[in-house]
Amino acid sequence: MRTLAVVGGGAIGQGVAWQAAEAGWSVTLFDPAAGSGASWVAGGMLAPLSEGWPGEDRVLEFGAAALARWPEFAARLHAATGVDVMVADQTLTVALDAADAADLRTIADWVGEHGHELELLDRAGVRALEPALARTVRAGLLAAAEPAVDNRRLLRGLHAAGAAAGVRVRPETVADLAALDFDQIVLAAGAASARLLPELPVRPVKGEILRLRHRPGATPVPRRVIRARVHGRPVYLVPRGDGLVVGATQYEAGFDTTVTVGGVRDLIADAETILPGIAEYELSEANSGSRPGTPDNLPLIGRYSDRIVVATGHGRNGMLTTPLTVEAVLGELAGTPLPDARSAAPQRFATPPASLASSTGGIR
Ligand SMILES: Cc1cc2nc3c(=O)[nH]c(=O)nc-3n(C[C@H](O)[C@H](O)[C@H](O)COP(=O)(O)OP(=O)(O)OC[C@H]3O[C@@H](n4cnc5c(N)ncnc54)[C@H](O)[C@@H]3O)c2cc1C
């Protein structure tokens, strides 16, 4: 049986480990704290259409290809573990002023040109769908086929599925990929991936995020993901069984994951502007994580050398792209690269320095 080391146990690494074990690989997953990285703090939106913007064609196409794989991926995970990860079926982006309403039209037109349908709503249309939203909301954009997942249930499910398929977990930090004695290695160490392959253009992008618990008598939780821009800052509300996730700040701060007073203040203020009733909710958690960012907002998925496949750089879309990434990595391991993942090929960035190429086998 061929041996595979997966380095990193976030959603990406655990997803790869599970599917590789099912495909017949003998899989060992290395992570000192599996499931504690960005995948633990994430919001769980699967929103490539609502996040679309003219010019970002490849990001849209990649995200749409990932979204299309979610129903089957979720069904397989459910069949393997009984875990249901879906928490909402639709996404509603709302506008508070004329400029934001114009942006919603721009998104709808551009995404429509790419063959994906979004529905523009007036004030009454928004209220009919989500009556608890603020009266200042003047327009909306409904993505009827953009759901959301509970990222923590996803991690639990992937862990259980991997264990059932025979994945062994070693709670260790890998310091040197070349020292791993396995036939193949998948690097899925999220924002820390460049510590192991320094030429990978992956950097941490900090994000703070809140979890609010619904209390008896408080405004009901919206049924859909709600997205908006308040004072120029993006904010989103993602339903959970017991409340809401409110996210997220975004800035460059290295690997710092301190939750700041300013971040929490802005998130609460912006969320309350959209859904005034959240003042009655319990603030149950404030957290922060490092998104694995890349220069062009597309991940790095593909063969790096004869022995190493990389699966990193998923930025703010790693939950969305998990099924596509897993399929692409399995394709690389089988020697049949996935056409839908071509735009994420790591070779689109610079060639590695000669020293690295010799120690790890180079970039192919
Ligand atoms: C605030 C926030 C909100 C987000 N919201 C969304 C969202 O709504 N939708 C969406 O699609 N995406 C979202 N994301 C992005 C998403 O969370 C990430 O893209 C995704 O989790 C990346 O998964 P990963 O497995 O690559 O990384 P991680 O989950 O960070 O996992 C990496 C793992 O590698 C391990 N590791 C690191 N170095 C080593 C080493 N040397 N040896 C062994 N193990 C190592 C770490 O311990 C960690 O467990 C959000 C991110 C943040 C921070």
Model description:
By secondary structure, the protein is an alpha/beta fold. It folds into 2 domains: 3-41 and 151-201 and 295-360, FAD/NAD(P)-binding domain (3-Layer(bba) Sandwich), CATH 3.50.50.60; 89-147 and 204-293, D-Amino Acid Oxidase, Chain A, domain 2, CATH 3.30.9.10. It contains 9 helices and 16 strands. The chain has helices spanning 11-22, 38-41, 57-81, 98-113, 123-129, 151-165, 261-274, 318-334, 354-360, and strands at 3-7, 26-30, 86-88, 91-95, 119-122, 139-143, 148-149, 168-170, 184-187, 203-213, 225-230, 233-240, 243-247, 282-293, 300-303, 308-312. The chain has an 8-stranded mixed beta sheet, sandwiched between helices. A 6-stranded mixed beta sheet has the order 8-2-1-9-16-15, covered by helices on one side. A hairpin with a 2-residue loop joins strand 12 and strand 13. Helix 3 (57-81) crosses helix 6 and helix 3 (57-81) crosses helix 8 (318-334). It is globular and about 60 Å long. 50% of the residues are buried. Mean pLDDT is 95; it is low at 352-364. The structure holds flavin-adenine dinucleotide (FAD). Flavin-adenine dinucleotide binds at residues 7-13, 30-34, 36-39, 41-45, 173-174, 188-192, 196, 207, 209, 247-248, 289, 291-292, 312, 314-320. Residues 7-13, 30-34, 36-39, 41-45, 173-174, 188-192, 196, 207, 209, 247-248, 289, 291-292, 312, 314-320 line the site of flavin-adenine dinucleotide.
